[in-house]
Every structure is written in structure tokens, then in C-alpha cells.
Amino acid sequence: MSAKIISGTETAKAIREELKKEVAELADKVIPGLVTILVGEDPASQSYVAAKNKTAHALGIHSEQVTLDAETSEDDLLALVEKYNNDDKIHGILVQLPLPKHIDEAKILNAINPDKDVDGFHPVNVGRMVLGEKCFLPCTPHGVLELLQRSGVETSGAEVVVVGRSNIVGKPVANLMLQKRAAGNATVTLCHTRTKDMDFHTKRADILIVAAGVANMIKADQVKEGVVVIDVGVNRIGMTESGKAKLAGDVDFESVKEKASAITPVPGGVGPMTITMLMKNTVQSARQFAGLA
Ligand code: NAP
Fold first, then answer.
1. Domain coverage including residue 98
2. Is any atom of ligand 1 closer than 6 Å to the C-beta of 214?
3. Does any domain span residue 129?
4. Best label site of 69, 207, 220, 281, fewest CB within 10 Å?
5. Residue 178: is it exposed, middle or buried by C-beta count within 10 angstroms (0-12/13-18/19+)?
């Protein structure tokens, strides 16, 4: 059996079309506004921020990009965040991570108004998510949920195994999968580097979500026939002939697709969903500020 490919590119495209329409319909009441703040010159961060601004622009979202010197002080960054907390044109504030070592990331993220925290990383939003309350869901886990839902994958009662327990992917995605609602209601196991027998868990997964950051670590003999695989991993494993970064997921796609019933590719799987969910959160925020949600 060769798996159905769950295309993040196609799903993201469909959601972006919906958002574009929604932004156009909102135009006489509110124009959603997003600011991205980048500190330093990390090339990967630069390209993520550029992609976020480009997508915002394409959807009719007002977007501002601030690039600061790598030597920027924590106080100056805090002051900038505060400025955008009070800017009525801006409904979403995104500070691109990682920040330079001399800046306390948690302090910066905590300074963002939770009502403008479209990344969903502020403790207030994390707390609301865990309690199942209305909040901004973190973008990558939210993207995973949308992919499963829009691909018609039944999560209720499913054995979901998540590999990786980071604050931005593993922990929130595991939490969302066990929530009592659509695209939830699963029985969830969370694995990490201290897990004693990883194969025992991955082999009984109906849905396997991998976010470990280790290229091709999950092989066909570690999954059961018919599993649905969501590969969050993005690993640079060299260069293509055209000089672009060659990417691999955390799952050995070629072998696992022969056993899975459905699988996301890398690239073109979870990646395109993350930025799309950022846009969705920004539009949601604008609606809330305009009293329309
Ligand atoms: P991270 O903070 O480095 O966390 C990795 C997690 O995986 C840790 O919890 C670690 O366990 C676990 N892990 C690592 N190696 C393992 C192994 N051999 N066996 C079991 N568990 C293992 O990474 P992250 O930020 O969550 O990102 C994970 C991957 O997703 C990366 O490739 C990243 O580039 C990608 N990513 C993609 C998107 C997207 O939009 N597509 C967004 C975010 C991240 P310990 O806690 O025990 O160390």
C-alpha cells in the first residue's frame, strides 16, 4: 500500500483563499495588522520573517517588518513591544525566535499583550489552551490539527503518539489532541529522549506526530500498517543542484509511505501550514479588537 499524501501546500492554499475573502469582507470595519520583529541577521530567521510578510501582504493584511541590530538591548526591545501593544493598527505582534543570547526570550514574550500574541506563546494563551478556553493556538500545532481535520482523519479514540516535547510543538500538539472537541478526543502518548522503549509506542500509534529535529529517524519497522503520519521535522541535509537547502523530515518518507495510510511530505507538509495559521490568528485578533468575534 502506498499512502495518501496529505499536502500542506494544498491545504494552506485553501485556507489562504478563505482568509483573503474574509479580510476583503472585513475591510470597511478593520484591516488586520501584523508586525514582525527580527533581531540580528540569522539567515533562516530572515527568510521566515520575509515569508510571513509576503503572505500577509498577499492576503491584504497590513504588515510591518522591524529589523533590529543584533546588539539591541533587552530594554530597547521591550520598549518596541510596548509601542506595538499600544498601536491600534497592529493586532498581531510576532518576535522572531531565537533571540540573541543577551536577551531573555521569556521576558520579551511575556511583555507582548496576550490579545496580540498571534504566535500563541504567551503563558496566558498557553494556559487558556490547556484549559480548552478561547485563545490563540500556537501556529504549528494548530496547523497539524487543521491538516488532520481537513484530510478527514478521525482522531476521536485514536492512539496518538507524539515524538518531541518542546514548548512550541510537542507539548501543545499533545495537549490539543486530548482536548474534548473536534480534532481531539485522542488517547495521547508523548515520547522524548528519556522514553525507554520508543518503538513500543510508535508501533501502536494510529496517528504518529513527529517533532524531534532528527532527519529520517522514524523508519518503516517502527510503525504499524495503516498509520497516519504527520512529520513536523525540518532538517537541512545538504544542498540541491540549484543551490537551495535540501530538506528532510524526521520520518523516512520513502519507506514509511509504503506502510502508512496517509503521510505528510517534507517540504510541503506542515511547513506551509504554520505561516497560514499565523495569518488566521492575526485575522481572529483583528475581529476581536473590532468587536466582531
Ligand atoms: P526541539 O525544541 O529541539 O525539541 C525536540 C524534541 O524532540 C525534544 O523534546 C527532544 O527530547 C525530542 N527528541 C530529540 N531527539 C529524539 C530522539 N532521538 N528520540 C526521542 N525524542 C527525541 O525542537 P522543536 O522546536 O520542537 O522542532 C522539532 C522539529 O520540528 C525540528 O526539525 C524543527 O525544525 C521542526 N519545526 C518545524 C516547524 C514547521 O513549521 N514545519 C515548526 C517548528 C519546528 P528531550 O526533550 O528529551 O530533549
1. 29-113
2. yes
3. no
4. 69
5. middle
The residues annotated as belonging to the active site are 52, 96, 119
Q: Is 194 annotated as a binding residue?
A: no
What does the mean pLDDT of the chain come to? 97
Check if 248 has its Cβ closer than 6 Å to any atom of ligand 1. no
- The DSSP code for 218 is B
Contact by Cβ (8 Å): 58, 16: yes
235-239 and 33-39 strand pairing: unpaired
Q: How many domains does the chain have?
A: 2
**Does 164 count as an annotated binding residue?**
yes
Judgement on whether residues 160 and 249 belong to the same structural domain of the protein: yes
- When pLDDT is averaged across residues 83-96 and rounded to a whole number, the result is 98
170 Cα nearest atom in ligand 1: 26
> Which CATH number belongs to the domain containing residue 219 in this structure?
3.40.50.720
pLDDT band at 44 (very low <50, low <70, confident <90, very high): confident
pTM of the model: 0.96
Asked whether residue 194 falls in the same domain as residue 252, the answer is yes
